[in-house]
Design a protein that fits this description.
alpha+beta
């Protein structure tokens, strides 16, 4: 039966429920400026009524209500919108990290007037042109040396600027990995606390907000996906692997090796496997992916391009200068100093560090037969050359001219390029490698199924796999036709950083060669043919690969960086607008609205006052029964 004092209990529950509503509203208002906070709402429900169905229930009309209670305090959140924001945040982080560095690269290329490398190189060519007119004079030789030094300073400055940016990115990678590890630990710790609170039947709303905020921050650093199907084991994935699993937060580590050019690989701490971050179309890899792509991709490629133009510039100038004579009758001098990667004359190198030669590091191989570039070869076969992702096949046909085969090699995508040198011989050179596991300027494989590279060009001894040149063993040069005089050992890494004029020429400018000798005799003092040949390198189609002249490199570099910067700026602006729209949508759903909260507070206040008035009324009724009825 109904208790006489049940009205007091009903009123007490109503007061407590509306007081909780007021407290929750105050909690919302106090967190109006808190990052990641989601507004909370109190959900009321009727308390269990008296007289549940049963055979022993009292025969009274209907169930007797017992007031209201707080069912739960729910945070307002759209899970689908959260997933969309997590997916898009990696793009915002990617372009946000990439754009500032591209601006700095643009600054490194922003050279005006006489300060540009191109202007300094033009002055260098002009000095050789002047020497060809006055080959017997010393001032012109001094000018060649000084302008060579000035041009080298420009190349080094650009290299140092790019290398400095690489070092900055490396430090940024280290700090970013530390941030990922910290976020992983925090999310795992929150998972532990959330699981305990839920086990008690409560809603850990503030902890859930904190966890979602950390996941948002993590998603801008690395591309992540979240799995909440198991409420007791919240999971975060990245790079195809689990980063956070419930109370376990995995960590990243940085690992350096001799094949990383001094930079760090990001690896999983527990397994040592390298983190696989792949940027695909319409899917970005966060700020960490952008930094790794900048360091190992964009900036590395710019340094490789500068190294390539520098190495070929050194090789071609030295090729002519070495065969010419100075004013003092000396010959065989390089104009620029070259530093071989290995001291072994055959290019033999111990790559795995076990104490035995296991590789051949050769940069250039020349054929021994003079070729006419416009002559038809009358041969058919397939040349196989090393490429970025395996070997590349270059076919040739009887109707092809020599120049056709050279161009086909240079346009094949192989990491071996071809040209016809000053003596008419076919010259193959290694290029910078796209794969950082392979060394730069090293020819890794040359093979010909026919006779173009063998009997025709005089480069290989035999056709087919038996006569192939391959770097994967010592003394690979023994398979070449020309012997030691027709190949050059690979240089020390980054020639753009160590290029310098031959000290012998700095000491005695009369050693600067200007003319070619005849029949073993030194050049006539009035012979300026060598100086003219060097000056002609300026506009002659001598650059290997798809860049035909030295000027092409500078035009291509400036244009390439300009396009990358423009693309980055537009992509960042687009991504920021997209994220702003998504965050505004979430704010409209989960954000605290001051007017709405004040209206809710007034509602709870009136409910509280009404409940209190109800208790006062019940108290008056009880007072009548207890104190005013005469018994």
């Amino acid at each position: 039966m109904t208790s006489t004092f049940s009205g007091i209990e009903i009123g007490k529950r109503a007061v407590a429920a509306h007081q909780q509503g007021i407290n929750t509203t105050g909690h919302n208002l106090s967190n109006v400026s808190t990052e990641g906070y989601s507004r909370q709402r109190v959900e009321f429900s009727p308390f269990e009524p008296l007289y549940l169905p049963g055979l022993n229930r009292e025969e009274t009309p209907g169930q007797i209500g017992q007031g209201t209670v707080v069912e739960r305090i729910e945070r307002i959140r759209d899970q689908l919108l959260d997933q969309r924001i997590i997916a898009e945040a990696s793009g915002e982080g990617y372009w946000g990290a990439r754009d500032p560095y591209l601006r700095m690269i643009e600054q490194a290329y922003l050279e005006v007037g006489e300060n540009s490398i191109r202007s300094k190189m033009d002055a260098f060519w002009d000095s050789w042109q002047e020497l060809s007119l006055y080959p017997g004079d010393t001032p012109q030789r001094i000018a060649v040396v000084e302008r060579g030094k000035t041009m080298i300073d420009g190349i080094r400055d650009r290299f140092n600027a790019l290398r400095g940016l690489q070092d900055m990115v490396e430090e940024d990678v280290r700090l970013t990995v530390e941030r990922v590890n910290d976020l992983s630990r925090q999310i795992a710790g929150l998972n532990n606390d959330i699981q305990k609170i839920r086990a008690q039947g409560d809603n850990p709303n503030d902890l859930l907000d904190r966890r979602d905020l950390l996941v948002d921050k993590l998603s801008s650093i690395v591309s992540v996906t979240v799995d909440q199907r198991d409420p007791d084991e919240f999971m975060v994935y990245t790079g195809g692997r689990v980063l956070v699993q419930g109370r376990i937060g995995r960590q990243f580590d940085l690992e350096r090796g001799i094949d990383t050019d001094g930079f760090s690989r990001v690896v999983w701490e527990d397994t040592g496997d390298e983190l696989q971050i792949h940027r695909q179309r319409d899917h970005h890899s966060g700020s960490l992916g952008a930094l790794l792509e900048l360091r190992d991709g964009t900036i590395r490629e710019e340094i490789q391009a500068l190294d390539s133009v520098t190495m070929n510039f050194i090789d071609m100038v030295n090729e002519i200068h070495r065969s010419a004579y100075g004013l003092n009758g000396t010959t065989g001098n390089d104009f620029f100093s070259e530093y071989p990667f290995v001291t072994n004359v055959a290019g033999n190198y111990d790559r795995d560090g076990d104490g035995a030669y296991d590789s051949s590091y050769v940069f250039r191989i020349n054929g021994t037969n003079a070729l006419e570039s416009r002559a038809q070869i009358g041969l058919e076969g397939v040349i196989t050359l090393s490429g970025a992702a395996g070997n590349v096949e270059v076919p040739y046909y009887p109707t092809d001219m020599v120049v056709d085969v050279v161009n086909r090699i240079n346009n094949s995508g192989a990491e071996v390029t071809a040209r016809i040198n000053r003596e008419g011989h076919l010259s193959l050179k290694g290029t910078p490698s796209a794969n950082r596991d392979n060394p730069d300027f090293v020819i890794r494989h040359i093979e010909d199924s026919g006779y173009f590279l063998t009997g025709y060009a005089g480069l290989l001894n035999e056709p087919g796999a038996e006569g192939a040149y391959d770097w994967g063993g010592p003394d690979a040069v023994e398979g070449l036709t020309g012997g030691a005089l027709d190949y050059a050992v690979a240089p020390v890494a980054h020639p753009a950083g160590w290029i310098e004029v031959n000290p012998a020429l700095l000491r005695d400018s009369s050693s600067v060669a200007a003319g070619f000798g005849e029949n073993g005799r030194s050049a006539n003092p009035g012979n300026g043919e060598a100086a003219l040949a060097i000056a002609a390198l300026r506009n002659t189609a001598v650059m290997v690969g798809q860049l035909r002249t030295f000027d092409d490199y500078f035009a291509d570099a400036v244009g390439r960086i300009g396009i990358l910067g423009e693309q980055s700026g537009r992509s960042l602006e687009t991504q920021n607008l997209t994220m702003k729209q998504l965050r505004d949508m979430r704010e409209s759903i989960s954000g605290v609205n001051m007017d709405e909260e004040l209206a809710a507070m007034i509602k709870y206040q009136h409910g509280y006052a009404a409940a209190a008035r109800f208790i006062t009324t019940v108290n008056s009724l009880l007072d009548t029964i207890i104190n005013r009825m005469g018994v």
